[in-house]
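Journal club side-thread
Mid-discussion, someone asked how the predicted structure for our own chain would compare to the paper's figures. Pasting it here so we can look after the session.
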Amino acid sequence: MSKDNKEFVRDFNEELVILSPGRINFIGEHTDYNNGFVLPTAIDKKVIFSFEKNGTDTQCKVYSATYDKILDFELNSLKPSDNEWENYILGVISELLKITDRVRGFNCIIKSELPIGAGVSSSAALECGLAFGLNKLFDLELPKITLVELSQRAEHNYVGTKCGIMDQFASIMSEEGKVILLDCMSQVHRLIAANFEPYKILLLNTNVSHNLASSEYNTRREECEEVVAIISSKYKNVRSLRDINKSILKEFKKELSPKLMQRASYVIEENGRVLQASESLEKGNLKRFGELMYQSHRGLQHQYEVSCKELDFLVDFSENKDQIIGSRMMGGGFGGCTINLIHENSIDDYVSTVKKAYKDRFKIDLTSFITVPSQGTSIRK
């Protein structure tokens, strides 16, 4: 830590601490920006924000312990940065200032327990924690859904990732021991008890992040929008893939390329899987829930083409093993984690075995952690 950073941390007068969690998503990948269904929840690993007012009107300093850097900016002269992590901060401030004039100078220290690039949405945790904290620090009285939406806009406008609303929604709206069945079109949501016993949630981090991830994410969104544009020329009420079923899609087989047919088919099928999975969970049919997770991964692998050899290896390795009932890639793709439902008595043996196999195959260390459905963004008491 540099001398200036040490002094900043030493002189900091903590007034408020916010805990902002990462998230997992059991099923419903790449459906959120298509107005579809998702089944996420917050996890017990968090980004921790400490805030203080600094008595100025416009001067702000944000220290990231992860990068050991201070972002120094003025509220009245915001502009995008060349450093990606800074744009998550600046984007939230920019969106806040569009809807309130009550933000003043502040200092902030950020520490993260979340692995970057693992598909647990450290970016949404960063956005939501900052928005939530400033809302409390300056008594802005903005409702939670406003914080969700402005955090999503921050990622669109400052970072350039045209994400759906799932990550930010899960980060703020989750409750301990529950998963969220979220309709991304209407934002209507329902909390479902996360009764997975005797299985635990195991995340296996490939520790790879292929450079296709961000560019291909936006490409997939554009491909889906292209399908919608073609179909809406005949069906005027079609505004997203949510409005299309398999029979309508089939009508346009000649107008759509095989690739576009695959993309749309995946999204339509995945929406169906989410609804089936939520019903299976409520009925306690974990075997069916796990089968749907595997189906989701194969759709992402073959139809949506956002997986990678490392993720596929881990899912393949888990199949036909009695102790694991479900496994799939999670997040935008091209790296990050698989999410697995594993019997609580088999965790240590399985993790040891899969780590060795992964290291032998890719010469990369696999990392793992068990997580639980947790409370959304909150004030540390």
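Post-session note: The chain has eleven helices and 13 strands.
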